[in-house]
Fold this sequence. Notes:
Layout: E1 5-16, E2 24-36, E3 41-45, H1 52-59, E4 67-72, E5 75-76, H2 82-89, E6 92-95, H3 109-119, H4 126-139, H5 156-168, E7 174-178, H6 186-203, E8 206-211, H7 214-220, E9 223-228, E10 231-237, H8 238-243, H9 248-255, H10 262-274
Amino acid sequence: MSLPIEIKHLVKTYIRHPWLGKRVEKEVLKDVSLTLQPGRVLGLVGESGCGKSTLCKVLLGIEKPTAGEVYVNGKDVARISKAQFKKLRREMQVVYQDPYSSLDPRMNVRQILSEPLEIHGLKKEKEEREKYLKELLEAVGLSDLFLTRYPHEFSGGQRQRICIARALALSPQILIADEPVSALDVSVQAQILNLLKRIKQQRNLSMLFVTHDFGVARFLCDDIAVMEQGKIVEFSTAEELFCHPQNEYTKKLLASVPKADPALREQWLNVTKEN
């Protein structure tokens, strides 16, 4: 049985050719090896600029790897044809970080959700498609009354729910979530994370969840890979990583996570009562 995602010794180097001077090479991904197991959520955690989003772009075929192999459901994404990659799109979908730029402002929700179905020739009958679109919105906690509305009429959390509904339209087996809650308010983040967790369980999805927030990763992920400057420095189950981190970089990241201090809270309450 093929793994949902299997990455072997992936290298990605960007080359700049300035008008004057020598060309500049920057190695963003350095010998990255990673696997996503069926039905599990793999968290890819690291600081901004460490290469997380670049890895997602390679997986999605937006960027070509400089070296190494990238397999999605057993297919090498760097070597398959455009027709084969179109079929692969039905198996793997993505939710991006910014829900504001992810949606076309000229399209209403019905058009946004219908677009992937039209591209792949699915749900052609009008009544069948309309019923399916309503089910998609219901799955992400939105009313079917929103079908005629446009993106500017929604809040950030509602827009991200629409993005998730669009990603689910083709019934994918794999979902790539690239910092899907980092642009949202904290209260809305919790709602979206609960939604993703519920959808993952209901649909038995395999998910690659990219984040810089260990608190978010702890809530959602089964396994965690820690990335530092383009390298995977630690990989283990979430429980093992939070209880017994091995790498010094991981320990520093965990130490930077804010923690509630009951003593400080009690002190603050006393000061509040006095005032």
